Every structure is written in structure tokens, then in C-alpha cells.
Amino acid sequence: MTSGSRAASVPAVELKVSTRSHAGHTVVTIVGEIDLYTAPRLQAEFTRLLGQSQTMLVVLDMSAVEFCDSTGMNVLLSALKRLRERGGTLEVAAPRPAVRKILQVTGLDSVFVVHETMPEKLLTSESQG
To answer: Which of 1, 24, 38, 86 could form an SS bridge with 15, CB 3.0 to 4.6 Å?
Structure first.
């Protein structure tokens, strides 16, 4: 019967990733949950972003990220490493309490620059793009 297709059905958790670049910095807005199933989508976006631009500062808008597991944190660390190799940096902005707690428990809040909110300079530059 249809047992083969039913076995692969996992609750669909959507992850939306959008990017916008302005004068040497890129804001990556992430919406949803970052976990084992959705992390490859985020990894693919970082690969695309790093492959096509000379962006030196990437700021992750995590205000709409409800959950991030160790797989997601590994994707963020990998992107940070790749940016640092090019002289750039990756910053985290507006993490929700659950994500902030993961950053604190793992010690990654001292690895990433973490902003309570989206930096004002990035908000004002949006309209100039």
C-alpha cells in the first residue's frame, strides 16, 4: 500500500531564509526552526551567499527563530569560520529567549557578537538599498 511514503512523513517545519545586502554588509533573516531537517537549507544559503559576494559583515536576524539545535549552531559556526577566513564576521541579532539560552549554555554567546535587537545602522540602511 502506501507505507513507503508514510514512513518518510515528518511534520513539516518550514524554514525561511532571506538575504539583503547593503554597502558591504548582509542581513540574513531567518524564520522558523533550525534543526537537523532544516539546517541544510540554511547551510545552502550561506554557501550561496559566501560564493557570490564580498560581504564582510553578515548579521543574522534571529528574531523569528523559535528553536535552534546543535545542528543549527554548527551551521552558524561553520559560516563564522568561513567568513573569518576572509577577514569578515558573523553577528547574531535579536535572538529569542530559547535561542539566547542555547548560545549561553554552549558558550557561543562569547564566540558570536550578539545584539539584543537589530543594530540601528542596519535598519536605517534598508531603505537605501
So the answer is: 38
**Residue 93 to residue 62: CA distance in whole angstroms:** 6
Whose cell is 539584543? That residue is 116
Break the chain into its structural domains and give their ranges: 14-128
Residue range 43-82, pLDDT digits in tens: 999 999 988 767 789 999 999 999 999 999 999 999 999 9
CA 18 to the chain's CA centroid: 10
C-alpha cell at 103: 548560545
Sheet of 57-68: strand order equals 15-22, 25-34, 57-68, 89-93, 113-115
Superfamily of domain 14-128: STAS domain (3.30.750.24)
